[in-house]
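Pilot study result, target chain (111 residues):
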Amino acid sequence: MWSLKTAAVEDGGPAVYVGTFKSDGFVIVNNFNLGRYWTSMGPQMTLFAPGAIFRKKNMAVLIELVGQNTFKTETPVISFLEKPIYKTRSHKHRSKHTQLNHHFRHHHKHN
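Predicted structure:
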């Protein structure tokens, strides 16, 4: 599976967590639940990590909800970013929604 590693945070300021994982699950840092990630669906691809939860040595726990032995051949990577990353699918949904509304209006005008 994967091993726990500790990381030091120098300034103790807020950070954004991002990871590259195959499914969905939860991330816990120093007994603080950062939240759920869902790689394939989004929209949230990053999790906010408040500076107050960090110590000199930190422990991150990833709870994978789907699949087993996800990290059989890979090691998970945790990075801290300045800005969050979002995965948007609004164009796909918006176009379908617009087409449905257009069809609905057109159909009801003639009946």
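One observation from the pilot: The chain has one domain: 6-110. A full batch analysis is planned for the follow-on phase.
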